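Task: complex structure prediction.
Instruction: return structure tokens for all chains below.
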Amino acid sequence: GQNIDQPTEMTATEGAIVQINCTYQTSGFNGLFWYQQHAGEAPTFLSYNVLDGLEEKGRFSSFLSRSKGYSYLLLKELQMKDSASYLCAVRENSGYSTLTFGKGTMLLVSP
Amino acid sequence: DVKVTQSSRYLVKRTGEKVFLECVQDMDHENMFWYRQDPGLGLRLIYFSYDVKMKEKGDIPEGYSVSREKKERFSLILESASTNQTSMYLCASSLFGKNEQFFGPGTRLTVL
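Output:
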């Protein structure tokens, strides 16, 4: 089984930088995913990490430390449209491509 | 562009009714998934399928069944709907060996 923790809510100001943390405990690790979900919409894929280190994709970056069971999603130059829920998900080392999701972090960006 | 569609955006049913939620993907993906999403609980996996006629239980399969007769279609069945099955249901698909799951728009089901 897996246990995934992330903060419930965060607030930030337009133009700022925000870091959303995710910690996990799993019996076998095979990748960590970040998804973005706007209210009333489907989750959309943001990033994937399977090796330690930082993956950068435009204004968004994701970091993974497997030894610490820790990841973060870094959002730079925040925009109002970044207000959304951010979901951390872990894939176990099994033959199936199933993910276990955290409960999500609701980010509110204010002017 | 991958497209995952779900038969209804909103659905209202009565307790005891049999409910079918349909999901169709157009990118020949082998893997398909059904989740429910509830406030404070996040996304939880109900069932998944990695091939036609194959199905596997997820974390919360009780009260649900699934059907995958064709590769592009994955159906979630509530044999006898109950009020605690009121939820947002999300379907997803992915290509075998690939990381990203693509989600449908969701069906908000209310059971009265």
